């Protein structure tokens, strides 16, 4: 399940990046310069992935599960 959520997050990130690039190009053609503020999408996604996999690892070790 976790790998499907990761795949969906990566696909959405790529969609968002392409959409932003197209939007910024259209605005640049009109002479409007867009400054990027705040966290970049890839930074935000990496933080979410680290928290998600870290939480899963803690759950796995605390539940005492073992791989057969």
Fold topology:
Elements (H helix, E strand, L loop, with lengths): L1 H28 L11 H23 L5
Structure description:
It is built from two helices and no strands. It has one domain (2-63). The longest helix is centred in the N-terminal third of the chain and has 28 residues, at 2-29. The chain is 75% helix and 0% strand.
The total of helices stands at 2
Shape: elongated
Strand content: under 5%
What structural class do the secondary elements suggest? mainly alpha
Radius of gyration: 18 Å
Order of helices and strands: HH
Q: What is the typical, i.e. mean, pLDDT? A: 85
The helix content, as a percent range, equals over 70%
Distance between the termini: 19 Å
Give the number of domains. 1
Biggest sheet record: none
Number-wise, the strands total 0
Poorly predicted runs are: none
Q: Nutshell version of this structure?
A:
The protein is mainly α and 68 residues long. It has helices at 2-29, 41-63. The model has no long low-confidence stretch (mean pLDDT 85).
Keywords:
about 70 residues; mainly alpha; 2 helices; about 75% helix
């Amino acid at each position: 399940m976790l790998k499907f959520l990761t795949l969906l997050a990566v696909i959405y990130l790529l969609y968002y990046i392409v959409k932003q690039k197209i939007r910024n190009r259209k605005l640049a053609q009109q002479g409007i310069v867009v400054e990027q503020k705040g966290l970049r999408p890839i930074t935000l996604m990496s933080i979410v992935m680290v928290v998600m996999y870290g939480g899963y690892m803690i759950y796995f070790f605390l539940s005492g599960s073992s791989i057969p």
